[in-house]
Design brief:
single chain, 263 residues, alpha/beta, 8 helices, 37% helix, globular, disordered N terminus
């Protein structure tokens, strides 16, 4: 395992063992976070966004092509307040005074944070680039999250265009943007729903050669059992393996927590 505990340079995610293992997210890097549907990659990204934007006071840009802003805010409130997401949506009918206090504190933290959400579901790679450059110019920008890769549009491409060619346009554009802005960009990606190995590997990704060409870092989320709340996070540096950790996922709060480090 790469020993970088004493040489930490990247943006911390708030997950101590992951940060020790990875060194955080480095400037100019394109990072892919991949899993099958319903494993929790969006939840993990939102937990990282909450930590980076609120705890570490960084400027975070979040491009959500799947969930709208209201859904995202509710999930961020559930993460910050430790309140069941279903209860949160029902609000005053079921919540007690302490829960309301927790919500008020979390909402205050979110309002004061430097998290900016763009929930345009049909945004193109060109629009993402323009918006990111504008955000950095107008208010500063330390890191970008995009949810998720397969939904990013590429203008002026025919419906029957080669998917590999479209993927390469998206990847090369995002890698260039990470370098231009000198920030890490984390992009969520979907594995095939029917694909369920114990441990995913780069070759399991469609157009894996394009991932290898442009991505600096790939994170896989794995579950050994469908109903198991433990999620394994396997981090792979494209110039060498790093390792894996396990986190506990608390779906009612949309929340991940550290449990132990796995070498």
């Amino acid at each position: 395992m790469k020993d970088i505990i004493g040489n930490f340079k990247g943006i911390k995610t708030g997950f101590s063992e992951f940060d020790k293992m990875s060194g955080g997210f480095s400037k100019g890097d394109l990072i892919i976070m991949a899993s099958r549907p319903s494993i929790g990659k969006t939840a993990l990204a939102l937990n990282m966004i909450s930590n980076i934007g609120i705890k570490y006071k960084k400027h975070v840009g979040f491009f959500s092509l799947e969930n709208d802003e209201k859904q995202i805010i509710n999930k961020l409130i559930a993460i910050g307040s430790n309140i069941d997401l279903d209860v949160l949506v029902q609000k005053e009918k079921t919540m007690n005074k302490q829960q309301w206090q927790n919500i008020n504190v979390t909402m205050k933290n979110l309002k004061e944070s430097k998290i900016l959400i763009n929930d345009n579901p049909i945004i193109s790679i060109i629009d993402i680039k323009k918006e990111a450059i504008k955000q950095q110019r107008d208010r500063g920008l330390d890191i970008i999250f995009i949810d998720y890769l397969q939904l990013i549009k590429v203008p002026d491409t025919k419906k029957k265009s080669d998917s590999g060619k479209i993927f390469e346009i998206v990847f090369s554009s995002l890698k260039d943007l990470a370098k231009e802005l000198n920030i890490p960009i984390i992009v969520l990606a979907q594995l095939n729903r029917t694909f369920s190995p114990k441990k995913s590997k780069i070759s399991d990704l469609k157009n894996s050669g394009i991932y290898e060409k442009y991505a600096d870092f790939i994170i896989f989320l794995n579950k050994e059992k469908e109903n198991n709340e433990e999620v394994e996070i396997c981090a792979k540096n494209l110039i060498g393996s790093i390792g894996s950790i396990k986190l506990t996922y608390l779906p009612e709060f949309n929340k991940f927590v550290d449990i132990r480090y796995v070498e």
